[in-house]
Design the sequence.
């Protein structure tokens, strides 16, 4: 029984460890990386402050003057692509619109396409003259921010070995209580005292060193 319990605990620990490793690998502490001077680009942003390099357009002749924009160097070419950044009211996430191609996307344009979880995701925007620059039509759902469910799942998986150990211990105690209670609650053996004919308990003989006069046993001499 104990061997099976240990094997079960070991198996659950391996599963829990692999699950937690995947969760930890997927989770990135962006604030800590930013404090260390490192830059990590995301597939979705909820705060404009988290978008590294986003600045307000100061060109008075620009259609997006006063709005947040992002300049990204072109790959293998000279110059930069300019992206307009705005917020989607439905999801609360920011998206990027390439002003040259009028293509929009949820993820940071600096992330390589090979690293995207959904490389085909895109959004349709109407950027024609006279149209609302923030009007959007998003047929594809954006990447949702990390929910509290992931943290709860990690906590539950981590507690499984503890619950199995506690459950096994309680089961073993219950089994011993039903069939072998003397192993759980051992009683001290009382010394057997013989009673005389008058019902009184006979005094026990003194053992060890005898009196000097030799009464009651061997002489000490």
Sequence:
């Amino acid at each position: 029984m104990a061997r099976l319990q240990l094997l079960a605990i070991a198996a659950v620990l391996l599963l829990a460890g692999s699950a937690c490793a995947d969760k930890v690998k997927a989770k990135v502490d962006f604030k800590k990386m930013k404090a260390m001077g490192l830059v990590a680009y995301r597939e979705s942003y909820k705060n404009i402050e988290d978008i590294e390099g986003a600045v307000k357009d100061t060109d008075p002749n620009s259609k997006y003057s006063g709005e947040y924009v992002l300049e990204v160097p072109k790959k293998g070419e000279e110059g930069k692509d300019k992206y307009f950044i705005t917020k989607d009211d439905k999801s609360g996430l920011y998206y990027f619109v390439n002003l040259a191609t009028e293509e929009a996307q949820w993820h940071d344009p600096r992330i390589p396409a090979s690293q995207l979880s959904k490389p085909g995701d895109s959004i349709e925007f109407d950027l024609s003259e006279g149209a609302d620059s923030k009007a959007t039509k998003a047929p594809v759902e954006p990447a949702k921010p990390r929910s509290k469910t992931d943290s709860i799942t990690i906590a539950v998986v981590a507690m499984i070995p503890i619950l199995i150990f506690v459950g096994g211990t309680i089961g073993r105690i219950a089994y011993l209580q039903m069939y072998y209670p003397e192993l759980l609650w051992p009683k001290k053996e009382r010394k057997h005292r013989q009673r005389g004919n008058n019902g009184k308990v006979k005094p026990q003989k003194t053992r060890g060193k005898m009196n000097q006069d030799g009464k009651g046993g061997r002489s000490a001499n």
